[in-house]
Design a protein that fits this description.
Two copies of one chain form a homodimer. Chain A is mainly α. Chain A is built from six helices and two strands; from the N terminus they run H-H-H-E-E-H-H-H. Among the domains of chain A are: 5-73, Orthogonal Bundle (Arc Repressor Mutant, subunit A); 86-132. Chain A has helices at residues 5-19, 28-35, 39-51, 76-84, 93-102, 107-125, and strands at residues 55-58, 64-67. A two-stranded antiparallel ribbon of chain A has the order 1-2. In chain A, strand 1 (55-58) and strand 2 form a beta hairpin. In chain A, helix 1 (5-19) packs antiparallel against helix 4 (76-84) and helix 5 runs antiparallel to helix 6 (107-125). Mean pLDDT of chain A is 88; it is low at 151-164. At the A-B interface, helix 1, helix 4, helix 5 and helix 6 of A face helix 1, helix 4, helix 5 and helix 6 of B. The structure holds a DNA duplex.
Chain lengths: 167, 167
DNA sequence: AGAATCCCTATCGAACTAATAGGCATTGTA
DNA sequence: TACAATGCCTATTAGTTCGATAGGGATTCT
């Protein structure tokens, strides 16, 4: 899965709307200004988020955007899938399962791809917009999702190579 | 991280060379035929793998390609980084660490991105070409890397949504 | 000498990405 | 009721990436 510039903008805009949750409609212009995003491009993104029922809009003067659901009910996986497609590094989960079943020669390879997508999905399904809110004074970030009967998963000590592992 | 068609071809070609390990040089044409890959495109890929010292070539008649190191010393992470770039879903690990440090407003978001890349890295660093070899008769695949003093990590029961979780 | 094979650079069309443009529709307010 | 503010929507564009092909040069075996 690759997160595009557009995907990043979407997430940033939604973080902004999360901060302003319950404060009524926010103008595109204000979101763009506060998050330093290209206004016209953001307009397109918000339209897409609206069609996906993640945000809602008010038109005309005093119009603007706001979240349609509480921030702790909007998962990062949902947004990323919408804007940037499947979480799998190749194809999508369904396709990979098919290949694992049918392509005996490359089964093990596709299984690794599926493992990677599952690991990403686990993180992104369990992180909501609410989890991204950091208190202004707070130090190094660490988040947790609890509410609404969801399993809280803390990704503790996940690190690959040595202490110094680039990419 | 997104694995391109080219990346998949590279991995497939290397799996083929793993099967033929210690059997001398294999012609591009034979690899292409056996794995059903476009020959000319594969040529480019192998050239790149050669420059990265993953495979070595012999030129002239009786020429061809072979792995330059034993299959259990070639990690999927190395190949994917070479062909498709950083494992992170956005930017690279170093850049993400910088953003987490400096961009207070979006720190938590970038931390999630880094968590995702760490999860992917963990899997891909711990899987080698040797791990992808399945016995011809064997059923559902499961692999493990042991040799050369590496920590063997079995990604057990990693699954996101419900039983039926597409992408 | 000649055939086989890898080496290398160039090129191509299709698709995707990030962004901009501009007119239409709706709504609050003077 | 006008009009200004704002979102809605479609089109367009320049630049990049992707997947693939082409072809001549260099090397090595027989």
């Amino acid at each position: 899965m690759k997160i595009s510039q557009k995907g990043l903008y979407a997430l940033q805009a939604l973080m902004m709307l999360t901060r302003r949750y319950n404060q009524g409609a926010i103008r595109i212009r204000d979101i763009a200004y506060e998050e330093s995003l290209p206004e016209k491009f953001l307009e397109l993104i918000l339209l897409e988020l609206k069609n996906a029922r993640i945000v809602e809009s008010a038109r005309g003067a005093k119009g603007g955007y706001q979240l349609r659901r509480p921030p702790d009910e909007i998962r990062l996986s949902e947004i990323i899938r919408l804007v940037d497609g499947p979480l799998a590094p190749f194809g999508d989960a369904e396709q990979l399962r098919g290949l694992i079943t049918r392509d005996a020669d490359h089964r093990a390879l596709y299984q690794v791809f599926l493992d990677v997508r599952d690991a990403a999905a686990k993180i992104l399904e369990n992180t909501t917009l609410a989890d991204l809110m950091t208190k202004p004074g707070a130090g190094p970030a660490r988040r947790s999702s609890k509410k609404k009967g969801e399993a809280s998963v803390v990704p503790l000590m996940v690190h690959a190579g040595g202490k110094e592992g680039h990419d």
